[in-house]
Each structure stands twice: as structure tokens, then as C-alpha cells.
Amino acid sequence: MNKHIEVEYQDGVQLVRINRPEKKNALTTSMYYGLAEAISSAQTDPQIRAVVVTGAADSFTSGNDIGDFVNQSEKPLDQTDAKTTNSSKGPVPELLAALDDAEKPVIAAVNGLAIGIGTTMLFHFDLVYAAVNARFAMPFINLGVVPEAGSSLLAPLSLGKQKATELFLFGDQFDVQTAIEGGFVNQAFAADQLMPEVMQRAATLASKAPSAIRATKALMRQFGPDLKAVMDAESAVFAAQLRTPESKEAMQAFGERRAPDFSKFR
After folding, report:
1. Would you give the DSSP letter of residue 18?
2. pLDDT tens for residues 79-130?
3. Which among 94, 219, 238, 246 is least buried, having the fewest CB atoms inside 10 angstroms?
4. Does residue 154 contact residue 123 with C-beta atoms inside 8 Å?
5. Span 40-71, pLDDT tens digits
6. Reported pTM
7. Could you tell me if 109 and 52 are in contact, meaning their C-beta atoms sit under 8 angstroms apart?
8. Does residue 230 form part of some domain?
């Protein structure tokens, strides 16, 4: 397990915490694998009936670690970091496969910032609860890349085409009320009540008929083949776009804390 991924157990619930607060819980390659491992291992543990994922301090996750981004963009497409498994070829697909394949309820407790993959991964959770001060964003275009995690399909389905387009093209942060109205956050709580409320709900699910929960989740997974095709297409475009001059300018600007200059690109 990655040192930045903490796991606790309580009343049949596995609590997984992203713990890298000094970087706003930005995700590295190994952290993706750690999250995936924690979620997947819970599926074979008979003592665990539900999984809760949250972040440490004031962030759920601020998204991909930009250092990892730059490292990946400097490698040829056929030499990017990957871990070969039966379900995926890289860290993000590994996590998404763990979420999508989970037979037990997986709940997100969004305690603060949820940026980039921090927002788009939420479309793959069964339930999402958030603090009233949580903030979301999908700023892929601002970094010279494209949406991922199946969000080019799932965001329009949840938010509506026009709202999803606005959030993708501008990449601005939005509040929890927008997320609730958009259908991918169930409910918001005061920051100090979020975890008690979520853990109570998780414990309630842990007490319910497990085979009925598994069957219900399987019935709602009918869109899976289309979603996988979308994610494969996104991954290919994302990897190629990450190596463009536009993306390199965006990453450099991020590191230099300035606005990127895209005026020379067509």
C-alpha cells in the first residue's frame, strides 16, 4: 500500500484516506495504484461490506501531481509508466476499473477541493457526499489536455450537455450546489458533520443484504461496454495531447505561477 493511502476499519466499513495534505492530496502514479488496491482488496474481504474514500485536511484531491504529468509528457507514448494487470494498463484506468468493478458500495466523502480527476472520478462512485465548502473543477483544457475518466460521456449525462460544455471549456471551479443540481453529489453537510454522516450511511449499507446490493449494482452497470470504449478513446487522445506544445506551455506556466500563453498555437 502506498504511504499516502491510509486504510482504517470500522463496523464493516473500510475507510480509505488520501493523505498528502502538503500537496492538497495530489495523486501520483503510485497513489493511484494504492487507491485501486485498497478498493479491490475490500471486495474479497468478507468483513467489509462498504468502502468510503475521503481526503486528509482540506482537500479530497487536487488532481494529478503536475510533476508526474511533466514526467509522462517527456516519455514516448510506448514508454509511459504502466502496471500490467488483467483490467488496465496504467494508474488511472486501474483506479477506475477498481471503482467500476466493485461489487460492494463505494462512497466518496468530498471534504474540500476536488479538482480534475478529483471531480471526474466521482462519476464512478455509487454515492457521493460533500462538505458545504467543497469545490469542484474540470480544468483539462486549461492544462492543454482533454477530459478523462469517461467524463466526456458521464458529465453530459449527469449535468446536461450545455452545463458540461461550460464547465469543460472554461475549467472554472464550481460549488457543491452546482454538483448536487448536476446529479453527481447526493447531499452536502457541514464540514465537521461530513464524516460522521457518511460513516453512518456506510454502516447502514453494511447491514443490508449483500447479495441484493451486488445484484442491484450489476443491473445498473448496463452501460459498461460503452463507457469503456469512451475511456479508451479519451486515454489515447489525452496521452497524445499531453505531448503537444500547448500542454507543455500550460505545464510550464503552472509551475511558474503565470497564465499560459496559447496565442501562438492554432
Report:
1. E
2. 444 443 344 458 999 999 999 999 999 999 999 999 999 999 999 999 999 9
3. 219
4. yes
5. 999 999 999 999 999 999 999 999 998 876 66
6. 0.92
7. yes
8. yes
Name the packing angle between helices 224-241 and 91-101 (round to 10°). 170
- The three three-digit cell numbers of residue 176, written as one number: 457543491
Residue 22, all three cell numbers: 502538503
Nearest by Cα to 205 from 193, 220, 217: 217
Distance CA 60, CA 118 (A): 7
154 falls within a domain: yes
In terms of C-beta density within 10 A (0-12 exposed, 13-18 middle, 19 or more buried), how is residue 245 classed? exposed
Give the residue numbers spanning the domain of 93.
5-192+207-255
Give the number of other Cβ atoms within 10 Å of residue 169's Cβ. Answer: 12
Beta bridge partners of 174: 136
Strands of 158-210, DSSP E: 174-175, 187-189
Strands 135-137 and 174-175: antiparallel
